[in-house]
Amino acid sequence: MTSRGTKYWNSGAIPLVAPEMLGEIIATAADLSLVISLEGKVLSVLVNPTHRAFGQLDHWEGLNIRDILTEDSRPKLEARLRQMSEGEAPAKAVELNHAEGEGWDFPVRYSFHRIGPDENVLLMLGRDLRPIAEMQMQLIEAQLALERDYESQREYDTRYRVLTEATRDAFLFVGAKSGRVVDANPVACELLGVARNDLIGASVAHEFEGRRRVEFMEMLTQAATADETRPTELETRRTRQAVRLYATAFRAAGERLVLCRLDPVADGAQAGDEMNESLQAMYHHGVDAIVFTDRDGVILSANDSFLGLTDAPQLAAVKGRSLGDYLVRGSVDLRVLVENATRTGQMRMFATKLSGEYGAQVSVEISATYLADQSTPAIVFVIRDASRMEVVRKPGVAVSDDAMRSVMELVGSATLKDIVAETTDVVEKMCIETAVELTRNNRVAAAEMLGLSRQSLYVKLRKYGLLARDGADT
């Protein structure tokens, strides 16, 4: 064949092809081939042997092709059959969707050719469009996902902009490596005395008096990564305004950033600031252990004195644990402290023992104060080491003069066994009275404190005439 194409075809140089070979050629040239009559009856079905996606379609033979097409493909077939019956030569292929079984259809692009001696039979050579359709569906889904992400990004960006414009707090976003301002809200720009366009991209250290870039970024990084948030006192360069800077480090899209919140220091608040500084100094350096917990007794914060009493290496070792884990009587003592503090607002001088990380026990006196006026209520425990006081105290249980006198009167009139029994009753009564008083008449907690069952406690209360108390917690 020459480059001129059809000359040899027209001259009859095409060799004759045997019928059995012609079928194989047609089946291999197309993915799916159909031979139909002009009325639409399927006469033969040829499936490409290398294309296994169609399966066996021999059952199509003898059917009307309209019965194996979807509803939307039938008008396109009718139009093409009408063209072929009128002798028109179709220029373009037709995409038809075949329906096979429940919920399974597949698209095929067909070209139509007249064959047969009278050209009353049509050969439909089809190309499977499912790979293209699947690729189109993937592209559509990817486009829809991008649209959803874009809309979500626009929504978050709008929320962020509204928040920065409406908030009264001044804050800056600073790059941790570059030390330059990434973004700032209008309040921060007004506080620093600079326009937002001039502030974005500028070095944040230059906005504060007497600060060098390297030293300032080291200070900012240390403040952002510290366990406890502590402000840094600064003075703005342009407005000469004293401010406190609170730093928070975070990572966004792989970039490390620092959120800098600026609080102006008012002149009238100087006395209150000194009080806050004094309270913080007492908390961090005081000799008494101070512990902040929530209403369930879970430790929120503790000072170094508490860490020393419990032999804890650092704050992270105790934060999030229950204070009852460090009390010898555990949840019994903690319940007494928490319930009395939340009920009356405070509890004073509760004597117990503190157990350290390695089992060492220390006698302590605990006072509790309930802070209910805060947005998140908390309980403050002040724990004092009382182990030295026990050395000077007399051992044993303090017995009242009346009880001692009643015991002494038994000498000479009763045996030693009876005197000891009487003394035991006196001590037992005093212990029960003390437990009931410490638990504010909460008899469930008193029974747990004494290691008694509730029934045994009620029996002893009735025995010593202590049952008739008001406000009993049954």
From TrEMBL:
Organism: Rhodovulum adriaticum
Name listed for the protein in its UniProt record: Transcriptional regulator PpsR
Gene Ontology BP term (one): regulation of DNA-templated transcription
Domain of life: Bacteria
Alphabetical list of InterPro entries matching this protein: Homeodomain-like_sf, HTH_Fis, PAS, PAS-like_dom_sf, PAS_fold, Tscrpt_reg_PpsR-CrtJ
PAS domain boundaries: 156-208
SMART domains per UniProt: PAS
GO MF annotations in UniProt: sequence-specific DNA binding
CDD domains hit by this protein: PAS
